[in-house]
Amino acid sequence: MAGVRRADVVIYGGTSAAVMAAVQVKKMGKSVIIVSPDKHLGGLSSGGLGFTDTGNKEVIGGLSREFYQRLYTHYQQDASWAWQKQADYGNKGQGTPAIDGSSRTMWIFEPHAAEQVFEALVKEHNLTVYRDEWLDRTTAGRSVKSIQKKAGAIQSFRTLSGQAYAGRMFIDATYEGDLMAAAGVSYHVGREANSVYGETHNGVQVGVFQHGHYFKANISPYNVPGDPASGLLPEVSAEKPGENGSGDNKIQAYCFRMCLSNHPDNRVPFPKPAGYDPARYELLARVFAAGWRETFSKFDPIPNRKTDTNNHGPFSTDYIGKNYDYPEATYERRKQIIRDHELYQKGLLYFLQNDAPVPADVHEKMQQWGLPKDEFTDNGNWPHQLYIREARRMKGVFVMKEADALGKTNVPDPIGMGSYALDAHNAQRFVKADGYVQNEGDIGVHPDKPYSIAYGSILPKESECTNLLVPVCMSSSHIAYGSIRMEPVFMILGQSAATAAVLSINKKVSPQRLPYQELKQVLLTDKQRLTL
Question: Three-class SS of residue 447?
Answer without folding.
Answer: coil
